[in-house]
Amino acid sequence: MIIKCTPIPTDSLANKYLPANYSDVFACEVAGNTSPSPDDIIISFFTDMPAWVKALFRLRNFMVQFVGLKGSNERTEELKDCIRTGGKSGFISVPDKNNHETVLLLEDKHLNAYLSVHIANTDNNKKNVSLITVVHFNNRLGNVYFAIIQPFHKIVVKSMLKRALSKQT
Fold this sequence. Notes:
By secondary structure, the protein is of the alpha+beta class. It has one domain: 2-Layer Sandwich (Alpha-D-Glucose-1,6-Bisphosphate, Chain A, domain 4). Helix content is 37%, strand content 30%. The chain contains 4 helices and 7 strands; from the N terminus they run E-E-H-H-H-E-E-E-E-E-H. The protein has helices spanning 38-47, 51-64, 76-85, 140-168; strands at residues 4-5, 22-31, 88-89, 92-98, 101-107, 111-121, 126-137. It has a 7-stranded antiparallel beta sheet with strand order 1-2-7-6-5-4-3. Helix 1 (38-47) runs antiparallel to helix 3 (76-85) and helix 1 packs across helix 4 (140-168). It starts with a strand and ends with a helix.
């Protein structure tokens, strides 16, 4: 499974959150006969993390508590329900969704991060799955925080997307 950096799809709901301080897209083609939904992928993304990613999040949650930032949401069933019904769970909400895309908002005082899973059919009878990140810094702490996590963000997101897609296809 090859994951590539690509532009945000032109029909993506994530475009309405631009311009932003940071954005990226990691995309992968999957077999056209599979039918993962954006909800299924994003739920897997957040609930089935490799042990090393869980360890990074535990470290992050420990460190950010000293500057008043929010930690991760550990309520798995509540998060799944939030994603499927378009609700809110802790600092995660679903501001937008349709049949081929689900957008999550991770909202904190230092930054707002939109994470979207977009699925499109391709010309070669496959599906293109894109994981889109759009970040808005709310203050200087957001800029500093993201500068620290950005190198990890790319590694973690690509790894988690690959894992989530392997569970769905």
